[in-house]
């Protein structure tokens, strides 16, 4: 149902009256600030008849409201939500001009600033009774049992690649794909065969799984515009044959682009290569093949392609095609980059990534690690690779032995950082690949990108839990970046914060070891869990929030902030509804800022 503006005023009649009775926007701003200050004073000094948790929501909402109506933030964002509200209160904006997203944001905000978020209805009904000792512990334990059942109930909704039924289906998929390629079992177990047979068009992938007309069209358009597309036979075997996207939604979406994505990519490509460099890697590269955003660690990218291409890859502006023949950097460039590391004594850690360095040959990996290990100061070498899910056959005993040779406890740590998105991607092959490293004392970490495809209630929790069981430590959960072509993937920051607080937090500490971050272009990671690192500074007419992110250098040295527009909560909730989700489960999302 599209909310009427009337409901916004009903949420807080006092704000409605202030706006209606103010003759000018300047007066309205002053009176609103007075009202918000009064609210704070009232709740902190006089009105103690409010539950502490409701008070916390009220106080943070008051701050957000002040931030939104401030002149500073109007200038920073070039928009005035206050003007929109003022005009609406004076009947100057037709109802249909106000989007549901905008109305819903303010309806919730207005409710919260008067202490009526309705997040704790049980408090209004029966104030919690104070118990103590064993009696309290038993009651508490009963409550925790119910939480645990709630977690379990949700996790069960997501079948994993280790479920016997799924494994059986995949064995059939594998046979079908092998017949299509005329491949033998020995081919399937050989990573080189997979890398030689990456499917790069709809015709090839269409022989492995059924594609919808839209999927075919998007792949065709991607090919026409030379937008990288590719899927390994192994990864194709993880897709369900029919394109219903019930369980394999994350897997298909990971590699099959949407029309929106392809059209926007094609348009941006026309503007020149660096318009796609959203992360401003070009501006943080002091020498070819190196990216540096932090004092102690820098990135080395010797190889510029992957076994297959993730649709929302932040390096999609650099990668030409999967397994591109000229993806390896010239030897002298690699040597110069390694020398650069040698010449920068502050650096103690290297992240070797790409592209995917593990799709190169053993000899190359060995030589590169040998060169890096000769810089005695380098105490950790991380290798970023997605082969654990794209072609786990690549993790041979030989490769693991090579990497393990450079792992010297007390001197130098070797570790792997992978990118697993969903429990449906986790297979026995992935688990065995991980265990090859764990057996050798080498840790494997995971960076998950929080997209629409893994953002339903407890979907990310299900993954973290399974990762721990196969030997992978959750490391980062990335908020999807503001790249416009990836709009189909993006999830509001409020949802990521909600997930961390209401889902991840319910798991034991060793399962939720990841940090939720927004990778700020040109700056580095911003920890989104703490509101002290960012603030909501505006709500746009379409309901999208504008955030101001603080640099990690805050309180260490002066550095610029970064302003970014999020995706709208209303649209995201509508999408969840279309996926069959019960929106009551997500109702607190509006109060995560
Ligand atoms: S594996 Fe990493 S570098 Fe390669 S396409 Fe995916 S996100 Fe990009």
Largest sheet: 9 strands, mixed
First-residue to last-residue Cα separation: 24 Å
**CATH class descriptor of the largest domain:** Alpha Beta
Q: Domain count, please report it.
A: 3
Report the bound ligands by name, code or SMILES: iron/sulfur cluster
From the spread of the alpha carbons, the general shape counts as globular
**What is the name of the CATH superfamily of the largest domain?**
Aldolase class I
Share of residues in helices: 40-55%
Helix and strand content put the structural class at alpha/beta
CATH architecture level-2 label of the largest domain: Alpha-Beta Barrel
Mean pLDDT: 94
Q: What's the CATH topology name of the largest domain?
A: TIM Barrel
- Spatial strand sequence of the major β-sheet: 1-2-3-4-5-6-7-8-9
Radius of gyration computed on alpha carbons: 26 Å
Estimate what percentage of residues fall within beta strands: 5-15%
Stretches where pLDDT is under 50 for at least 5 consecutive residues are none
Total of DSSP H or I helical runs spanning 4+ residues: 25
Total number of strands: 12
Organism: candidate division WOR-3 bacterium JGI_Cruoil_03_51_56
Protein name: KamA family radical SAM protein
Domain Radical SAM core: 292-510
Pfam family, one: Radical_SAM
What does this structure look like?
This protein is of the alpha/beta class and 593 residues long. It folds into three domains: 117 residues, no CATH class; 99 residues, no CATH class; 319 residues, TIM Barrel (Alpha-Beta Barrel), CATH 3.20.20.70. 45% of the residues lie in helices and 10% in strands. The strands form two sheets. The chain has a nine-stranded mixed β-sheet with strand order 1-2-3-4-5-6-7-8-9. Helix 3 packs antiparallel against helix 4. The chain is globular, with a radius of gyration of 26 Å. The structure holds iron/sulfur cluster (SF4). Keywords: 4Fe-4S, Iron, Iron-sulfur, Metal-binding, Pyridoxal phosphate, S-adenosyl-L-methionine.
């Amino acid at each position: 149902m599209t909310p009427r503006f009337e409901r916004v005023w009903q949420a807080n009649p006092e704000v409605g009256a202030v706006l209606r009775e103010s003759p000018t926007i300047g007066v309205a701003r002053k009176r609103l600030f007075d009202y918000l200050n009064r609210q704070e004073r009232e709740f902190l000094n006089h009105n103690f008849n409010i539950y502490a948790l409701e008070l916390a929501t009220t106080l943070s909402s008051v701050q957000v409201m002040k931030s939104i109506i401030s002149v500073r933030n109007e200038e920073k964002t070039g928009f005035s939500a206050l003007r929109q509200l003022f005009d609406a209160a004076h009947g100057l904006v037709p109802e249909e001009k106000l989007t549901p997203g905008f109305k819903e944001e303010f309806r919730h905000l207005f409710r919260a600033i008067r202490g009526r978020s309705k997040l704790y209805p049980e408090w209004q009904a029966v104030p919690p009774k104070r118990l103590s000792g064993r009696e309290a512990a038993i009651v508490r334990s009963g409550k925790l049992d119910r939480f645990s059942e709630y977690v379990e109930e949700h996790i069960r909704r997501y079948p994993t690649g280790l479920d016997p039924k799924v494994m059986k289906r995949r064995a059939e998929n594998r046979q079908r794909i092998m017949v299509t390629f005329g491949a033998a079992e020995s081919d399937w177990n050989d990573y080189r065969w997979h890398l030689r047979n990456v499917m790069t068009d709809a015709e090839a992938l269409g022989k492995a799984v059924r594609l919808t007309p839209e999927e075919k069209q998007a792949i065709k358009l991607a090919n026409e515009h030379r937008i990288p597309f590719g899927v390994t036979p192994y990864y194709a075997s993880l897709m369900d044959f029919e394109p219903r996207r019930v369980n394999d939604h994350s897997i298909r979406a990971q590699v099959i682009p949407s029309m929106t994505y392809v059209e926007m990519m094609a348009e941006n490509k026309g503007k020149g290569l660096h318009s796609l460099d959203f992360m401003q890697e070009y501006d943080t590269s002091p020498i070819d093949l190196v990216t540096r955003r932090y004092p102690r660690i820098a990135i080395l990218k010797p190889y510029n392609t992957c076994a297959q291409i993730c649709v929302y890859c932040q390096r999609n502006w650099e990668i030409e095609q999967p397994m591109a023949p000229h993806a390896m950097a010239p030897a002298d460039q690699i040597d110069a980059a390694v020398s650069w590391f040698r010449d920068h004594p502050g650096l103690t850690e290297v992240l070797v990534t790409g592209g995917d360095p593990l799709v190169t040959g053993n000899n190359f990996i060995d030589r590169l690690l040998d060169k890096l290990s000769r810089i005695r100061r380098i105490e950790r070498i991380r290798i970023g690779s997605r082969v654990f899910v794209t072609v786990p056959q690549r993790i041979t005993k030989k490769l693991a032995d090579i990497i393990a040779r450079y792992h010297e406890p007390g001197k130098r740590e070797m570790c792997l950082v992978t990118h697993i998105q969903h429990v449906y991607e986790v297979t026995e092959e992935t688990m065995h690949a991980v265990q090859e490293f764990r057996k050798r004392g080498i840790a494997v970490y995971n960076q998950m990108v929080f997209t629409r495809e893994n953002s339903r209630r407890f979907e990310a929790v299900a993954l973290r839990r399974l990762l721990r069981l196969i030997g992978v430590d959750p490391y980062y959960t990335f908020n999807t970046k503001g790249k416009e072509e990836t709009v189909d993937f993006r999830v509001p920051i409020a949802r990521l914060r909600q997930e961390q607080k209401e889902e991840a937090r319910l798991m034991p500490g060793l399962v939720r070891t990841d940090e939720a971050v927004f990778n700020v272009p040109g700056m580095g990671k911003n920890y989104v869990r703490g509101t002290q690192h960012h603030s909501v500074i505006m709500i746009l007419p379409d309901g999208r929030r504008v955030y101001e992110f603080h640099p990690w250098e805050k309180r260490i040295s002066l550095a610029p902030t970064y302003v970014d527009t999020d995706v709208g909560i209303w649209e995201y909730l509508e999408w969840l509804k279309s996926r069959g989700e019960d929106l009551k489960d997500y109702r607190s999302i509006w109060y995560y800022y």
